[in-house]
Amino acid sequence: MDFFQAHLLSIITFVPLAGAVLLAFLPKDEAGQIRVIAFITSLVGFGVSLPLAWLYDRQAGGLQFQEHAPWIPSLGISYHLGADGIAIVLVLLTTFLAPIVIVSTWGSIHRRVKELMIAILILQTAMIGAFVALDLVLFYVFWELMLVPMYLIIGIWGSERRIYAAVKMFLFTAAGSLLMLVGILYLYWQTKALPGGAPSFDYGAMLQVPLTHPQEAWLFAAFAVAFAIKVPIWPLHTWLPDAHVQAPAAGSIILAGVLLKMGTFGFVRYAMPLFPWATHHFAPIVGWLGVIGIVYGSFMSMAQTDMKKLIAYSSVAHLGFVMVGLMALSTIAASGAVLQMVNHGISTGALFLLVGYMYDRRHTREISAYGGQAKATPVLAAIFLVVTLSSIGLPGTNGFVGEFLILLGTFSSHATFGIAWGVVGATGVILGAVYMLTLYQKAYLGPMTHPEVKKTKDLSKREIFTLVPLLLGIVFIGVYPQPVLNLIEKPVADVVARVSPQAVAPAAPAVRPGTERPFRVLAPQIWRLSPQLRQELLRRSHHRVPSPMH
Amino acid sequence: MPTLLTEYLILAAILFVIGGVGVVVRRNAITVLMSIELMLNAANLTFVAFSRFPLVAGMTVQHAMRGQAAAFFVIATAAAEAAVGLAILIAVFRRRETTHVDELTLLRDPEPVFEREPEPVPVAVHASLETH
Amino acid sequence: MPVGTYNWQDMAALAPAIILVVGGCTLLLTEVALKSAGRGYQAGLSVFFAVIAGLAAFSQLASPGRSLFGGFARLDAFGAATALIICLALALTSLVGQSFLREQASERGEFHALAQFAAAGMILLADATDLIMLFIALEVMSLATYALTAYLRSSARPAEAALKYFVLGSFSSAVLLYGTALAYGAAGSTKLADIAAAVGSGAHTPLLIAALALVGAGFLFKVAAVPFHMWAPDVYQGAPTPVTGFMAAGVKTAAFAALLRTLYEAFGQRALALGAHGHGWYVAVAWAAILTMVFGNLLAIVQRSVKRMLAYSSIAHAGYVLVAVAVGAFGGEARAAATQAAIYYLLAYTVTVIGAFTVVAALEKRGGPEIDDDTRYDGLAQRDPALAFVMAVFMISLAGIPPTAGFVAKLFVFRAALDVGAVGLAVVGVLSAVAGLYYYLRVVVVMYMKPAPESAPAAPRRMVSMSFGLALAAIAVLALGIAPHSLHQFAHPAALLNP
Amino acid sequence: MLFNLPEWLHWVFLGLGLLTVFFWLFTETGRGKELRSFALGLLTLVFAGFFVVTSPDARSLVMLTPHELGAMLVAIPLLPLIGAVFNGLLGKWVGNQRAGFIATSLVVGSFVASMAVLANLLAGATEFHVTTYQWFAAGTFDVHLGLYADHLTGVMLFVVTGISAVIHWYSIGYMEHDPHAWRYFAYLNLFVAAMLLLVLGDNLATLFVGWEGVGLCSYLLIGFWFTDEAKASAGKKAFITNRVGDFGFLIGMFLLFSVFGTLKISGLRTQAGAVAERGGWQAPVATGLFHDVWQRSVTKLKSEAARLENHAQLVESQAALGRIRPGSAVGAQHASRQAATLRAMASRLEKRATDKAAHGPPTYHFLIGLAVLFLFIGATGKSAQIPLYIWLPDAMAGPTPVSALIHAATMVTAGVYMIARLSFLYVHVPEVMAVVAIVGALTALFAALMAFGQNDIKKVLAYSTVSQLGYMFVGVGAGAFAAGTYHLFTHAFFKGLLFLGSGAVIHGLADNQDIRTMGGLRKHMPHTAWTFLIATIAITGVLPFSGFWSKDGILHDAFESPSLAAIAPWLGPLLYIIGTVAAFGTAFYMFRLYYLTFEGEYRGKVHPHEAPPTMTIPLWILAIGSIAAAGLAFPLGDSFWERFLAPAVAHYGPEMATHAALPVWPFAVAVAVAWSGFGLAWLMYGKGMPTPESDPYFLKLPAFAKLTANKFYVDEIYQTAIIKPLWRFAKWLHKWVDAFAIDRVFVNGAAQVTEFFAKVLSPAENGDLSRYAAVTALAVAGLLIWAVV
């Protein structure tokens, strides 16, 4: 038991991988057996992750369940895991969705089942690892590792233009994360200035690095671009609709449910606490981008004729809410934002699951191909309606609590544009209803316009089984979100305190005149070494190299 | 004391350049081989010139002899190189019946296609379609 | 110090190279003694000698560093590490080459013998601290590889590749030699230490700079850095595939080792302030690195043959190592970090690229189509899942995605670059790596996401040795990616290059 | 024991409950008999509730402890919620009829609990409060799910649960032929639960849950017959229009929270009181967000000015030191000019800062005015006022009992209730109150005009509802919260009755809703006709029915409203005139409706039949209510209603609004107007209409009739001016910005440019050895030259 507690996070992270390794040794013809083992693995993964929720000390907050072991000590890289409330809710979301995802594929994917299950389980390990890693190289490893199985899931089991979509997703995300890698390495060298002297990739060390403002600005930019692509923030979002549309339902669920949270989680865990001054500095820009995302994503959703694309764009809008909530730099809004991450995972995951089931029946995603579906498939229609309502943030469902906290917190925050963000963001509430209800009406209500609709079968027991947990989640968080909010309360407050103006102003070195405006900090050329740096390096190279002997 | 060093060096440099230009402009592989030999010998000449008229003050005899030794090494190496080169040339001639280097363009980058690529063809229908 | 003093201990220090020479001779002799049947033992023999040489190199890893033969060569961890990589490349090539040779009906002992000689030359190249010695080692290596390139006589392409390689290689050797002659003139000696003294004293600087430029050009040619890269795609594509792998791994490693030694040991002191513009060679190498990364990755995108794509990828990877080389210009800790990064990168690249070329070789059938296009890889994951998997691992490693050796190698390089504040180099590196992702992924795409063609030609039978070699390479790639620290003892003392 | 009641009363309740269950269990056999018994049981319960409320003895008997009252408050919304969940999940298996009984029983239970609460209020209690659990909290924001009841709530509880119970009962009969009635009852129960939460919520966030919840149920019920495209669209229209209003509601809440730091109604009330103590509403905000925003902008302006000043000094000192082009007169001049410009900018900023500092942060009056204005926008959505009324006529697509309950009696009055609930804020901003009253008056007038031209029996009633809601807003806008809510109360009865009556007509005519093809129905369906007539008289404001007292109370209060007078002295009289004109219209269209439906000769084809007792009994209950509700307006001048509501609503101005001197002429005018409207309708339609096409209104006034029949083309204007452009904008944005500019140019463009460069460079490798050698040689030469030269 002690071992279990001491290595809880490792166990949670690597249980799926163990399952994947086990599956690798099974013959690939035994699809049924493979599915069951994958399902059991994911259930075990969910089971072992549950203790996190009650073992976490809410009063103490901070990063708990830490595990620390050297990995590449010569480079200051260690195997360091730890989780705070934010990570815990996201880990739980991941492990909660995994069995659902696995079961959801049983009816729809019969080709290369073994590879699919292995890919999903490896993906799960990578996602959890990215949430709990506290060493930036470890984080980066998990972060990139996520891409490969996702790439395969889209590329192998996707629809017609799957390869284009998979490659686009991969290149887009990898481009951003490589820039982040440069940022990580730069930050790594800055840790030399800390007592102890040895540079380290440890999160804790990096938190203490003193940085000048231009440094912070550049590093924030490097991290933020990587995360922004993942979120995705407008205008870096165009990979998302393609990926979602082409991915199989399971892929879409994971993508919407967890992968997109990586971006926002990255902001909360890395970009904001590591670079408080820059966060403060760029928050107006990123916040406006979030607001644009809300309105723009909603308008995009209105223009779609493809269901999955519509939902994909609605994700842009929802994550716009999350970004605004984070950039308001207020506890209320940030709590709402973190909660909204979970909400979006559940609601949009459920929407993609439902669209997947619809696709299984009719093999089309065109909204116009449906119509009057509710008559033929009442259970599907009812569940779709509940999820739709959750997506548009109706009170009593999870979506409301998150959006309400975000908007209220943003409006009442001290962010420069807080009031404007709150007002403009609130229009998303109207637009959300417009596109989601239009979708529902076109697909489910009205007369049955296609003869196939009448023959459509309603949800099977197994399909309902995958949906019920999501529905319970929707209602539970809608009616009683406080357990989740309790978990994230302290960590969120810590992050917000770290980026608050009071915390930022005195600690940071004086600003050079003319560098107060965001992009002016980024003005110095990086292309070549600056003259001062050159001189310094020259001096060093003469100083360190022993003079010639002969 | 005026030395002949500069003159030798200039001569060597001219030879080197001639050799280099020969490699570039001549199409016959045999001539190209000869040009390379010329370049190697230009280097040899430089070695020997520096050995005979050292630039470095107080160069010992041992050091001076090194330049000359180097020339011998290079001569030997050049011989080996010529042997391998001619062998390769024979191999080429056997297959292609030519020793003109500009006719050997089997290996090259593909011709670029500048038209817009057509929309990706649907590679395979969705998984479930195949099984249902 | 008298010129000719050497003793048996000095000779013993060259054991890895000597063992390989002996091995090469042995293989040639056995070729004479034996006839065609049962040639498999030759590969075994070759692997055996490579392993023995590798063990010898391994035993030298902890060496504190010592000058040999009055300064012509040097025994140090750097050389030993390089030798170890080269022995690894040789062993892997011999292991997997046999299957290819049998498929091409070209099982002859010369192949392995030539490989042994080439490897010996490479090791000497890494150990040499005298420019003449470097030249000779380079020629030993090059002549053997020219011959290896032309090895397959059944096809027109190897001969063409060999001719191109030979002409351009000799040209660059001549350039290098001419540079050596100039250096000799300026320093009165061809030993790196003496040149270093001359550089330090500041006399005859223009001559030294010219010498540096010419010698450097020679090495940049060998590592296929842009714009000295023109030969590489054609030669890599035309050479017998295992040879291509061996060249990409071994030649590159040895040439980089020599380049590092020359630049650091002879010209290390004024690395940032030498030359007409006072930039030092840092700027030249950095620009070469940038050009190499950008053009290598860019041109690889449009290739339709996997083998040729890998050739361009090899150019691009040289660019990343050049980043490390350039960073070493800053001396001190930066140089140690750079050397370590370069060595690690070369090791990672060696296992990965030999593996990748082996997969290419595994799909080459005798008398198959001359132009190798991607169709052979279509749907490989369904026809031969194991082969597709290892290929995917190699591609991911080449693309620099964790948890593979390629990622850790890039991490080392960029880490070294950022230590000296060379953010620009790192940024260009990562941006060109994005282009790199595209073409590596395309291989994964065709293997995993395209359906197998109806009339896919059956892949040739693989010998166990080839499968074993592939598995070894794949495991090494993953192990180097997941537990790079196991090689801590390997890469770290290797950084102790004599300044 | 939950109830502190005498033993025998317990047994009565228990017995009645058991009876109900018993009948329910045996509904399979002899349905008609049990149906009657069930109706009887419910009637008993309802009368028991009335008995408890009205009898002082009984009232004293049901005084509950706070704990029990808390349980009661929780039970009120919870019972229908349980019903909704039960029927929603299991209704399909339970069966339609039983689902209806379950739903009705639970609402009746809720009604009984409400009666208990009301009894306690009547007995002198002022307010009850119960907190259940912490719903959500973050930072300084905290919502406990609390329920709160005061006198205003008590009234609403009575209306909501009472009318709901009746309409549930009615629905059992109305929906008996529908195969999905179980779903209907689940929605209806959910609606009641949401409405009760709206009414009881002690926090604006909780209130908002109910606010949106009723909107959802409205959506579900309007689109209940969803296979009809038009009905589904009507539901969507209702939801989205409501959402537009909710946007305003949200912003209002955010503003309140930003100013007061709480959304709890009692907290807002305390804060509002504190503001008055601190220095009044015209004082600038002393703390909170807006104060900080102001301070920050002042500081920023000042620091910016200081920075410019510094810069100017720097330029001057540099010039003095000769650092700017030494020795050059141009340089010195330039520097002094630059410094002067900087100084000028600095002084401008400084002045702005001083002005801003002097001006101070915004006042409470401004901020709270803005907040309640936004909340009123929410109310225009929910309560169908200009400009968001458009959804309500379309909402008639739902089943008729739904129209009666949701779209006449309860949900649409939520806006009025909300304003009355927050009257303690509204009374401090007479400007906003005036806006409320003006919007209400205009809505009352225009909706009445639109009702003229309608031929669908339910559409007439729908516009009538919009119009009557307008009156209520005039009431609350004029500061006559009691009068406004009184009209809400009476309207619930007679409009519910009218809708149920129309439902009976539609039921009896096999779903025909066109009044031109009706006529003479009084002979065929006497119960319906008589109750309909009672309601018509009530709504037209004919003495002594309830509508007269409530509507004319509003007009009277508007006429002499002190808050309206504070804005402009003519405003009150103007609104009085508009209201009176609208009242004339009301009388006309209502009697037109009555005559065309029930008098003259039958013009239709289907044989009409009277509704079953499950439908007619509720009609009579409401008819009685419509008449009896008038009693609450007495004694005149100091009515029971006003006294009862006094503790729960605020008043404009320092002094209590009194009706010391009641002028008689406004009453006289009102009576005259009502009678003249009736007279006109009698003249035109009193003899009935020979054919469906011979409507004198359409024949005599064709242009105006067409205009009103087409609702002044407001829907069309909205379509062309707002909705279609938005959709077109979305399509445009998708096509040109997303697909083209971002994806094609920016994303794929980057890839294609890369590929283009690769393709351009690739031919260099053409296989020609000479070229390779040339490039290599040039590279060597280049390197050499670069290094040496």
Would you kindly provide a written description of the structure presented here, covering whatever features stand out?
- The complex is a heterotetramer of chains A (550), B (132), C (499) and D (789).
- Chain A is mostly helical.
- Chain A has two domains: 1-274, no CATH class; 276-504, no CATH class.
- Chain A has 24 helices and two strands.
- In chain A, strands 1-2 form a two-stranded antiparallel sheet.
- In chain A, helix 4 (85-104) packs antiparallel against helix 20.
- Chain A is globular.
- Chain B is mostly helical and 132 residues long.
- Chain B has one domain (5-103): Helix Hairpins (Orthogonal Bundle), CATH 1.10.287.
- Chain B has helices at 5-25, 29-52, 61-96, 127-131.
- In chain B, helix 1 (5-25) runs antiparallel to helix 2 and helix 2 runs antiparallel to helix 3.
- Chain C is mainly alpha-helical.
- Chain C has one domain (8-494).
- Helix content of chain C is 73%, strand content 1%.
- Chain C has helices spanning 8-13, 15-33, 40-59, 77-103, 109-127, 131-149, 156-187, 192-201, 205-222, 231-238, 241-266, 281-301, 306-327, 332-362, 380-383, 385-399, 405-419, 423-449, 464-482, 488-494; strands at 66-68, 73-75.
- In chain C, strands 1-2 form a two-stranded antiparallel sheet.
- In chain C, helix 3 packs parallel to helix 5 (109-127), helix 8 packs across helix 11 and helix 14 crosses helix 20.
- The longest helix of chain C is centred in the middle third of the chain and has 32 residues, at 156-187.
- By secondary structure, chain D is an all-alpha fold.
- Chain D has a two-stranded antiparallel sheet.
- Chains in contact: A-B, A-C, A-D, B-C, B-D, C-D.
Structure in a nutshell:
The complex is a heterotetramer of chains A (550), B (132), C (499) and D (789). Chain A is mainly alpha-helical and 550 residues long.
Write the element-wise H/E pattern of chain C from the N-terminal end onward. Answer: HHHEEHHHHHHHHHHHHHHHHH
Q: What is the overall shape of chain C?
A: globular
Number of H- or I-type helical stretches of chain A: 24
The separation of the N and C termini of chain C measures: 20 Å
Low-confidence stretches of chain C: none
Strand proportion of chain A, as a percent range, falls in under 5%
Biggest beta sheet attributes of chain C: 2 strands, antiparallel
* Model regions low in confidence, pLDDT < 50 over at least 5 residues of chain A: 506-531, 541-550
The fraction of residues in strands of chain C falls at under 5%
Nearest-integer average pLDDT of chain C: 85
Element order, helices and strands of chain A? HHHEEHHHHHHHHHHHHHHHHHHHHH
Radius of gyration of chain A: 24 Å
Q: Biggest interface between protein chains, with counts per chain?
A: A-D, 62 and 58 residues
Kindly name the structural category of chain C: mainly alpha
Major β-sheet strand ordering of chain A: 1-2
Task: Write down the domain tally of chain A.
Answer: 2
The largest pleated sheet of chain A is described as: 2 strands, antiparallel
Strand order of the largest sheet of chain C: 1-2
Q: Portion of residues in helices of chain C?
A: over 70%
